[in-house]
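Service request form, structural biology core

Requester: graduate student, group of Dr. S.
Request type: structure prediction, single chain
Budget code: on file
Notes: please return the result as structure tokens.

Sequence provided:
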Amino acid sequence: MKEHINTAIIALSIVITGYLVSQAWQYRYTNEERIRVKGLGSKDFNADLIVWSGSFSKKSLDLKEAYTLLDLDRESIKKYMITKGLELKQLVFSSITIEKLFDDVYDDNGNKIKSTFNGYQLRQTLQVESKEVDKVEMISREVSELIHQGIEFYSQKPEYYYTKLAELKIEMIATATKDAQSRAKKIADNAGSSLGKLTKAEMGVFQIIAQNSSEDFSWGGSFNTSSKRKTANITVNLEYSTR
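Core staff response, request fulfilled:
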């Protein structure tokens, strides 16, 4: 009976030892068979499309007169833009907005007593979209010359875009992937193993910011339109097995 008990204990010990060894190997396998790395791709580029807009308005007690005055300004603005080298098809004028103006009269307690009609104000917006970035940028800086013609043109800051973002992103993903692969290989070499198959790949955040700026990065990605010279950044997350 005693011999049977000893045999059972020995068998149980073998089973337990085998289990512990297998668990230790599995723990090592789980923790060492994967290498996770992040790669970065970055590129400087210039915008190839500019969008610029401005507005002008006229005011009169007579609606018809206000429209006539606005129409004269619009024609003068057209001529000005054409003399600066733009084509007529590049000039997009919005529909005219009409606002009735009133002068309010208040008593000493701040209560409104009456409103007196003060005329009509008509406003129109001009938008220019062009691939001639430098030309339109210069016009936006010189447009105050219209003041000499009695035209109050309120210029907005130009917005700068890039029309080949899809191609740029593909190029940057390739760069970021190569960077990540190089990092993973160094980690594997330092660990005394070799890099295996790529088991997982995820694209991270894609950012476009102004060149040489302190513009903050955003976890959701940012897309700068205020600067002509831009920097694009992209990250990729890769996971490799080891051999």
